[in-house]
Amino acid sequence: MIFKIDEIYGEGLDFEVLESKKHFDIDSPECSLTEDVKIQGKLGNTGQEILCNGLLETGLSVTCSRCLGDFSFSVKSKLRVHFLPRVEDANPANEIELNDLDFEQEFYEEGQINLSSPVRDLILLSLPQIRLCKENCAGLCPQCGANLNEKDCGCVKQESCDPRLAVLQQLKDKLK
Ligand SMILES: [Zn+2]
Ligand SMILES: [Zn+2]
User: Is residue 105 part of a domain?
Assistant: First the structure.
């Protein structure tokens, strides 16, 4: 996903790419790309800085955090990247401050930008921390491990361990 900077000029460069899912190496048991990655966007050149504004679309197979079943997750996210030239003797104290949090900051060198790593980051960031196959996923039975979305295993729910409730329970027993 490399673009030569001298091909980005004037009104900018419109582009549309479909990159093979293998390119991104997102292939773990918990999360893997199931579709190639489509990006449609525009590159602008301000002289030194390159701005990429686009829309990324792809699909993932993701493991549910609650029931551990796999489900498909569609990604449709805005890709906004701000490329700056990499300066060889950059002093860390002079690092450019992120003033536009809407854009991911990247560096370019040798007259070309590479969208691969910002695209990969965006795909992974589009996943929520808690990944649920459906909002009301019932999860697994803590006792027998059955998937409660598929069947009611019939296990009796464990008593609450809340000490305040335990005190109430003792009172109730005394009253019997
Ligand atoms: Zn689930
Ligand atoms: Zn059970």
Answer: yes
In terms of C-beta density within 10 A (0-12 exposed, 13-18 middle, 19 or more buried), how is residue 23 classed? Answer: middle
Total domains in the fold of the chain: 1
CB 56 within 8 A of CB 39: yes
Tell me the CA–centroid distance for residue 157 and ligand 2, in Å: 9
**Nearest-ligand number for the alpha carbon of 67:** 1
Q: Which domain holds residue 117?
A: 2-125
For residue 101, which amino acid is it? L
User: What is the 158 CA–ligand 2 centroid distance (Å)?
Assistant: 11
- Beta-carbon-side half-sphere exposure of residue 113 (alpha carbons within 13 Å): 24
In a domain, 6, yes or no: yes
Q: State the distance from the centre of ligand 2 to the C-alpha of 151, rounded, in angstroms.
A: 9
Strands 31-33 and 27-28: antiparallel
Tens-of-pLDDT digits for all 176 residues of the chain? 999 999 999 999 999 999 999 999 999 999 999 999 999 999 999 888 999 999 999 999 999 999 999 999 999 999 999 999 987 765 555 555 555 567 888 999 999 999 999 999 999 999 999 999 999 999 999 999 999 999 999 998 765 556 676 677 777 777 77
Q: For residue 144, is it within any domain?
A: no
**28 is a domain residue:** yes
* Ligand 1 centroid from CA 139, angstroms: 6
